[in-house]
Automatic annotation (TrEMBL):
It catalyses: an N-acyl-L-alpha-aminoacyl-tRNA + H2O = an N-acyl-L-amino acid + a tRNA + H(+). It comes from the Eukaryota. The lineage of its organism: Eukaryota, Fungi, Dikarya, Ascomycota, Pezizomycotina. This is peptidyl-tRNA hydrolase. The keyword S-adenosyl-L-methionine does not apply. Its EC number is 3.1.1.29. GO terms for molecular function: glycosyltransferase activity; peptidyl-tRNA hydrolase activity. Residues 331-340 have a biased composition (Basic and acidic residues). It holds the Pfam family PTH2. Belongs to the PTH2 family. Residues 235-257, 300-340 are annotated as: Disordered. GO terms for cellular component: cytosol; membrane.
Length: 481
């Protein structure tokens, strides 16, 4: 049968039509189709529905129109459906009649006719009584393949399920569902009284077919779809395509009035200006944002922020994280990096020993606790805190003091840093006591406990920077990390 013969290059298709003891309906169906050339015909060798989907060497074209004897497109609509198939659905089964299914609580499928109701409008199957298909899909339906052999065997055993089987084979190959396309008149259905679908228990049997295919082959069709393409009249008596609007009446498009558009734009601009001005006035006067909230915002932006790390043991001068060495003394106290001065009764202070500058190369030793199970990243962070803590302590010494001279020499000669290990908190405290007794800088870092280890755990002791020989008196016997 020739389709759209007026094109410079003729696009053609074959028609595969199935009949079932209905000569009257068959004649009515063929009459509008055979107004032009008479096609060739063949009869099936067996009275089996698989024969409809069996390929034939006489099929010379890419497309097939699978049809029954009681359903057909009007000739004027057939052209539209065929061209829509060429443009939108070559790898899909293009159909006039779609079917849906539901799944009950036990997992069984209920075969239903699609409707506009939610949950009943997403179709997955087609009826092969009016379907455009690539001939290659028939080639896949017919070979000696284990899966397809089982499909055809099932069709031979259970009458009237070849369309469900073909939907399965198609979706198995393409992972695509069918596409519903209709002309202006949708399709013509003669609805004869003599037919398989008129038999008692037809819908129940179809439901069982869907359940069996789902259980035996994994799925029936994918994905579900609500898209349709149909032909509807426009005010200019021409035709247009509607997509993604299944079963909805078409409304003619109208051009918006230019004056109306301008009015909407101006009105929107005026409303936005007035609303923004009013919002600003009410906000500044405290009608929308209370003065308490505004003051809280000011404090958050401008006041020094209390550290949310773990508490500092003021008696032991433990730092919970690296100090901010750009701060002054007041800011350090505010952020918990420096102990606040307590008012105490006058006491006689012992003179703290001060390490003397002997001109020797300086180094900083980082003593890491390995019994806490810290990761490499955690150890690196804690060592960084300890380094900055020691640096901050020495940087606050007077400019002409021995401590400042040691710090400058350490900076100038490459900031040597050595990491060693201990296995307990007691060792950390003992090493810090010895270091301070010799006048060395010794700072202990205490973790906040928000990630890997318990809050308040002493993680790293920093000793120095100080002359190498003096530091070795404290840490020389420890193993490298």
């Amino acid at each position: 049968m020739h389709i759209n013969a007026d094109e410079p290059i003729t696009v053609t298709t074959s028609l595969v039509l199935q009949t079932y003891r209905r000569p009257k309906e068959l004649a009515n169906t063929l009459k509008p189709i055979l107004n032009e050339d008479t096609p060739s015909s063949r009869g099936a060798q067996d009275a089996a529905l698989n024969e409809k989907l069996w390929p034939d060497l006489d099929y010379k074209y890419q497309a097939l129109l699978l049809s029954d004897d009681d359903v057909y497109y009007q000739p004027k609509d057939l052209e539209f459906v065929f061209q829509s198939w060429r443009k939108f659905g070559r790898i899909r089964l293009v159909e006039a009649l779609a079917r849906c299914y539901l799944i009950d609580a036990s997992g069984d499928r209920e075969y239903i006719i699609c409707t506009n109701r939610k949950g009943r409008d997403d179709y997955t199957m087609i009826l092969t009584n009016l379907t455009f298909s690539l001939i290659s899909f028939l080639d896949y339906y017919s070979p000696n393949d284990a899966v397809v052999d089982r499909v055809r065997e099932y069709v031979d055993q259970d009458f009237n399920c070849e369309d469900i089987a073909f939907s399965y084979v198609h979706s198995l190959l393409t992972v695509e569902g069918p596409l519903l396309i209709s002309g202006h008149d949708i399709y013509v259905n003669l609805a004869p009284s003599q037919g398989i679908s008129r038999k008692k228990g037809h819908m129940k049997a179809r439901s069982q077919y869907v359940t069996d295919f789902s259980e035996n082959f994994g799925f029936i069709a994918a994905p579900r779809d609500v898209t349709s393409i149909n032909l509807a009249p426009s005010p200019n008596s021409q035709h247009h395509i509607s997509k993604n609007l299944p079963h909805l009446p078409q409304k003619p498009a109208t051009m918006p009035d230019q004056g109306e558009q301008t009015g909407v734009i101006i009105s929107t601009a005026i409303v936005a200006l007035i609303t923004g001005y009013a919002f600003g006035v009410f906000t500044t006067r405290g009608y929308l944002i209370s003065p308490d909230l505004a003051e809280e915002r000011r404090r958050n932006l401008h006041d020094p922020v209390e550290s949310d790390e773990s508490e500092i043991d003021e008696d032991d001068s433990l730092l919970d994280h690296a100090p901010n060495w750009t701060n002054g003394a007041d800011a350090d106290q505010k952020q918990g990096l420096r102990n606040r001065m307590k008012e105490k009764a006058p006491i006689v202070e012992e003179k703290t020993p001060v390490v003397q500058d002997n001109g020797e190369e300086c180094k900083l030793v980082l003593v890491v606790r390995t019994d806490l199970g810290m990761t490499k990243g955690k150890i690196a962070a804690q060592c960084s805190h300890a380094t900055l803590a020691c640096y901050k302590t020495l940087s606050h010494a007077p400019a002409d003091s021995p401590q400042r001279k040691l710090l400058k020499r350490w900076e100038r000669l490459g900031q040597a840093k050595i990491a060693v290990q201990v296995k307990s908190q007691d060792e950390i405290l003992e090493l810090r006591r010895k270091a301070r007794s010799l006048g060395l800088t010794a700072e202990v870092i205490q973790d906040a406990g928000r990630t890997q280890i318990e809050a308040g755990s002493m993680t790293v002791l920093g000793v120095g920077p100080a002359p190498r020989s003096i530091v070795d008196q404290i840490t020389g016997g420890l193993k490298l990390l």
